[in-house]
């Protein structure tokens, strides 16, 4: 490799390593490391919101199931009425 190219890459490499070191020590760097490690702390408010949303989804599923059963019943009644008439 040409020595001039190596000497040109040294400052670029230094800037990249320095920038990475500064980023790694920042709050964002620590948060990213915690997230990657799987130790991200979830806030209690967020967990409560998730629980509330899950219960709402369960209620909506039950409501949808009941609506589908009523629709099936109405379809059976309508089709039975057409066969008799």
Would you kindly provide a written description of the structure presented here, covering whatever features stand out?
The chain has 85 residues and is mainly alpha-helical. It folds into two domains: 1-41; 42-85. The protein is 88% helix and 0% strand. It is built from three helices and no strands. The protein has helices at 3-25, 27-37, 44-84. It starts with a helix and ends with a helix. The model has no long low-confidence stretch (mean pLDDT 89).
Question: Helices and strands in order, then pairings?
Answer:
Layout: H1 3-25, H2 27-37, H3 44-84
Name its key features:
85 residues, mainly alpha, 3 helices
The share of residues in helices is over 70%
How many discrete domains?
2
Oligomer: single chain
Element order: H for helix, E for strand = HHH
Rg calculated over all Cα atoms: 31 Å
Distance between the termini: 93 Å
State the shape: elongated
The biggest beta sheet reads: none
Structural class: mainly alpha
DSSP strand count: 0
Average pLDDT rating: 89
In terms of DSSP E residues, the strand content is under 5%
Number of contiguous helices: 3
Q: Would you identify the regions where 5 or more consecutive residues have pLDDT less than 50? A: none
Sum this structure up briefly:
The chain has 85 residues and is mainly α. The chain has helices spanning 3-25, 27-37, 44-84. It has three helices and no strands.
């Amino acid at each position: 490799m040409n020595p001039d190219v190596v000497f040109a890459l040294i400052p670029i490499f230094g800037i990249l390593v320095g920038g990475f070191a500064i980023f790694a020590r920042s709050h964002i760097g620590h948060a990213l490391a915690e997230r990657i490690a799987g130790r991200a702390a979830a806030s209690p408010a967020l967990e409560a919101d998730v629980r509330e949303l899950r219960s709402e989804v369960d209620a909506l599923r039950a409501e949808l199931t009941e609506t589908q059963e009523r629709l099936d019943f109405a379809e059976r009644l309508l089709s039975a009425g057409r066969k008799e008439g």
